[in-house]
Amino acid sequence: MQSVPYIPMTPRLPAGLFVAILISGCAHMSPTDQGALTGAGLGAATGAIIGDASGNSAEGALLGAAIGTVAGVAVGHKEEVQMERDAAIMAARESELRRREITMSDVVNMSRQGLKDDTILLAAQTRGCQIDMNPNNMIYLKEQGVSEPLIKQLIEYGN
Fold this sequence. Notes:
By secondary structure, this protein is an all-alpha fold.
């Protein structure tokens, strides 16, 4: 009976598998955590490969993981700060746009001051309009003297 030769497993396969598992598990992590984990995995794999050439794959993996973690945290943190800054800018822009939008009381006031329907509609189109044209609001606008053609145009604009 022939014996099966023993083939020792090198650290490259476990390190590569480890990196693949780490990268696939990052979906719900912060960019800083993702950077740390990815950096540790890639650093460990690289360190093990380099360390294997000098006969110190375990030490190389540990050193690579440490260096990779530090670098990954730095890169991930920078990305996280950028994302937070971008989110704050978008929130400020949305808030500014909301302040500029035409409201139901704006429509009533402009109508009472004698502005033409086309002018009021143009203001709604250029500044945005935050009027929910539900039946109660349509009745309210009509009761306040807003013309039915303008109410119809605002409904069409909202759709």
